[in-house]
Amino acid sequence: MQYDEAVAKIRAKLELPEGANPFARCKGQQFRVLQGDGVALDTVGDMCASLLANGFCINTVHFGSGGGLLQKLNRDSLSCAFKCCAMYVGGKMFAIGKDPIAGGKKSYPGNPAVIKGEDGVLRNRAIYDASGKMTRAQPLSSDEFHNGVPDDQLMTVFKDGQVVVDQSFFDIKNRVAIKDLDGAISKAVDNLLLKVDFLQSMTSKEAIAVRLAEAACGSKWMHKHPAKLAEMQSKFPSLSLAPTFASLGLTPSMDSDTLLAHIKEKHMCDKKAAKKVLAALDAGDPTAAAAARDGKAIITL
């Protein structure tokens, strides 16, 4: 039902009748657009959702990534860190954690077991209150630390400076492979439905008009020169954007400096707002993203 609801919104945006296929694709698939900027594990989902929300098949685009696969992977994105979390001395457990007095990142005190739930999700073994709400992670006791915990998914691979478990690349590749395709598809559809309205707003007539005005300026690093807004408008007569340009105050008489200054002041988020918009989208909160955008046609140049 969520997929049907998302498709209905896409049909409405494209003004298509009920039952029509809203997704355009390249005929024969001999031609695709190559997207190489900003491609990383945490951005591809929204890129695909944006394509679908605006009526394009995913296979109209090839994604390429260079430095992003190296520069954007860190201990946070991979949920990996080495920290002292507990000491086991004389049959007792002493939890260790950080809680800076000036604020900042806290860390789990103690060394909890990691258990895979019935839904397949890995979670720290936890202590729950009477209402069933998790209160804190439950660290390993000294006995559990030395003898193990049933169903604990963690295993020792590095101890006292030595690698004690040798894992091949193919073992790791098989372990992280998507085995539940239905779950992955459901997650993608949830993301699309959550953000479809926001993603479609980025291709409104106002957004397209501002983008065309930006393109009419040529290189942003050139000296002041006549803009080619009239020429740019004439290239897309089917869009019928003349009233939109007028309502936005974008006129052919503007030179490049004036046009860009007008866009930045009236129709583009400043750096602080843009940062809030992108952070909200990353957190899966398109309502907060729209509020931070505050009616601006575009987020950044």
Task: Give a verbal description of the structure.
The structure is a single chain. The protein is of the alpha+beta class and 301 residues long. The chain folds into three domains: 2-73, no CATH class; 86-166, no CATH class; 201-293, no CATH class. The chain contains twelve helices and ten strands. The protein has helices spanning 2-14, 44-53, 68-71, 142-147, 169-176, 181-201, 205-216, 229-234, 242-248, 256-267, 271-282, 286-293; strands at residues 33-35, 61-63, 86-89, 92-95, 114-116, 122-124, 126-128, 134-137, 158-159, 162-163. The protein has a two-stranded parallel sheet. A two-stranded antiparallel sheet has the order 3-4. Strands 5-6 form a two-stranded antiparallel ribbon. Strand 7 (126-128) and strand 8 (134-137) form a beta hairpin. Helix 6 packs parallel to helix 12 (286-293) and helix 7 runs antiparallel to helix 10. The longest helix has 21 residues, at 181-201. The mean pLDDT is 88.
The tally of helices reads 12
Q: Please tell me the overall pLDDT.
A: 88
Number of domains: 3
Query: What structural class do helix, strand and pairing data support?
Result: alpha+beta
Shape: elongated
Helix content: 25-40%
Strand count = 10
User: Over the alpha carbons, how many angstroms does the gyration radius reach?
Assistant: 26 Å
Low-confidence stretches: none
Widest sheet: strand order? Answer: 1-2
- What does the largest sheet look like? 2 strands, parallel
* Terminal-residue CA separation: 37 Å
Write the element-wise H/E pattern from the N-terminal end onward.
HEHEHEEEEEEHEEHHHHHHHH
